[in-house]
Write a structure and sequence with these properties.
By secondary structure, the chain is an alpha+beta fold. The protein is 47% helix and 18% strand. GO terms for molecular function: phosphorelay sensor kinase activity.
Length: 505
């Protein structure tokens, strides 16, 4: 029967989680930050332009009013105490020549008597001192016949021949603001209308420049998408802008870590498959041999070997699972909690007492002088200590001893030590015994080569250091023994409250 061909699976991204934050477009966010100030400043620019245009429009008209007042003032004089005006008809016609803007003028004597011009022109509000000290043309805004007007006025000092105090006459010229408004509107149109043409062009250029500036991100995305799922090589940063280089560098670091993890997993799977092949092959061979045997004793021996192979395979699987749990354990997870290292070690030692009897080894425990509290995962720490004790029992000959010790020092460190009287580990081998499936040459003890790898992984998860020494209490030169020491950082002690004065009831 033909086996169906395995369909090639494509990676499908997971659906977006409704609880996740809404993603923001970098393009849209930059565009908002660029256009929002522009659109807010544009009305302000129009308002400022309008005020400036009005100021510019007022200047020539004010100069014209000033000239008119000056001309009128020159036509007013006093003869024998009477005010004489020599305003010709042509000059009067010039003042009245504007049909669009109504122009008004007025000449008043020292006592407010009407000399010439429009009688109903509003009067300036000035005191006598201001009138006598006035020498130049002044301006004010007022209303005439319900229409806003701009008025230029001046006080003319009249000379007297009798030596009395000189008198002053008032000369005023006013005009409506229609022409000023027309000029200001013309200036506004000349400035604002081109902006309506320039603004869309500016928006288009901003859009194009922003899209062009972000195009390296799109190119980087396409380059990453074009890669195969197995390509974990570093991304070249030669074609990306300087601002994106740190992102590419971070991606390359992540790819490097991911590649290392995948290589470790592949090697681990290959080693595990290789290690599993031996007990499985032995189980198959013993089962086939038992099936061919007719002698009960031979069948019993084959079944005993089958049981040993099954036990070795079970132990290997259990240690593989323990190593996988240790590698996937998160140090900051909810399983990390304060615990008494001495109490935990005592319980683990009690679990191995019966096994030590079967090996005829003296298993002892030395407790600390006071409770030693660390932060850790009790399940993983029990697995760590169990592997160290199991390793010590397997390599210590019968009649030897294994001691588990918990102690602390004044450097805020806690120590967990497992000491045996076995053959020890040569200094050249101590760095390699923590590798997966590594076994020292010439070693005849049963084992899978994973126990110390599990110890190192769990120790790293707890921020502990693992060191190997010779047993300083060994008495036989050919059995130097081994001392495994784990150094745990102790949590900071809580601050002590200041002594309070006693309370008397």
């Amino acid at each position: 029967m033909n086996q169906p061909e395995a369909a090639e699976l494509e990676y499908q991204p997971p659906p977006p989680d409704a609880d996740e934050d809404i993603q923001h477009s970098l393009f849209g966010e930059i565009l908002d930050w660029m256009l929002a100030p522009l659109l807010l400043l544009w009305p302000m620019s129009i308002a400022i332009t309008y005020l400036v245009a009005k100021s510019i429009a007022n200047q020539p008209f004010d100069h014209a009013l000033e000239d008119s007042v000056t001309v009128l003032a020159q036509q007013v004089r006093s003869v024998d105490g009477k005010i004489i005006k020599s305003l010709s008809g042509s000059a009067r016609d010039i003042l009245r020549a504007d049909d669009v803007d109504n122009v008004y003028f007025q000449i008043q004597g020292p006592r407010g008597e009407h000399i010439d011009g429009d009688r109903d022109m509003p009067q300036p509000v000035l005191d006598d001192e201001d009138k006598t000290s006035a020498g130049g043309v002044r301006f004010r805004n007022d209303n005439m016949h319900g229409t806003p007007v701009r008025i230029a006025f001046a006080y003319v000092q009249l000379e007297r021949n009798d030596g009395r105090v000189p008198q002053v006459a008032l000369v005023q010229v006013a005009e409506t603001l229609a022409k000023r408004a027309q000029l200001a509107n013309a200036i506004i149109k000349g400035v604002i209308l081109p902006q309506f043409i320039v603004l869309p062009i500016v928006l288009a250029l901003v859009w194009f420049a922003l899209a062009r500036g972000l195009s390296p991100l799109a190119q980087l995305q396409e380059r990453i998408r074009a890669r195969s799922s197995e390509d974990l090589s570093p991304i070249s940063s030669s074609q990306v802008p300087e601002e994106i280089t740190p992102l590419v560098r971070s991606l390359n670091e992540m790819l490097s870590r991911l590649s290392l993890t995948i290589d470790q997993q592949k090697r681990f799977i290959a080693d595990a498959a290789h290690q599993m092949r031996t007990p499985l092959a032995g189980m198959r061979m013993q089962s086939e041999l038992a099936l061919r045997q007719t002698d009960k004793d031979e069948i019993h021996r084959s079944l005993e070997q089958l049981a040993k192979s099954s036990e070795a395979a079970t132990r290997l699987v259990n240690q593989l699972l323990a190593l996988a749990r240790a590698e996937n354990q998160q140090p900051a997870g909810s399983a990390m909690q304060p615990l008494d290292l001495g109490e935990l070690a005592r319980n683990v030692v009690q679990d191995w007492v019966q096994a030590s009897f079967s090996h005829r080894i003296d298993l002892g425990f030395e407790a600390p002088r006071q409770p030693l509290t660390i932060t850790g995962n009790p399940t993983m720490l029990r697995e760590l200590l169990s592997n160290l004790i199991d390793n010590a029992l397997r390599y210590t000959p019968a009649g030897g001893s294994v001691t588990v010790r918990v102690r602390s020092d004044e450097l805020e460190h806690g120590y967990l030590e497992v000491e045996d009287t076995g053959p020890g580990i040569a200094p050249a081998e101590r760095a390699r015994v923590f590798e997966r499936f590594y076994r020292i040459l010439g070693n005849t003890a049963e084992g899978s080569g994973l126990g110390l790898a599990i110890v190192r992984e769990i120790a790293q998860q707890h921020g502990a250091e693992v060191d190997i020494f010779s047993n300083p209490r060994a008495t036989q030169p050919r059995l130097p023994g081994a001392l495994f020491r784990l150094t745990f950082p102790l949590p900071p002690a809580p601050p002590q409250a200041e002594d309070e004065p006693p309370h008397y009831g």
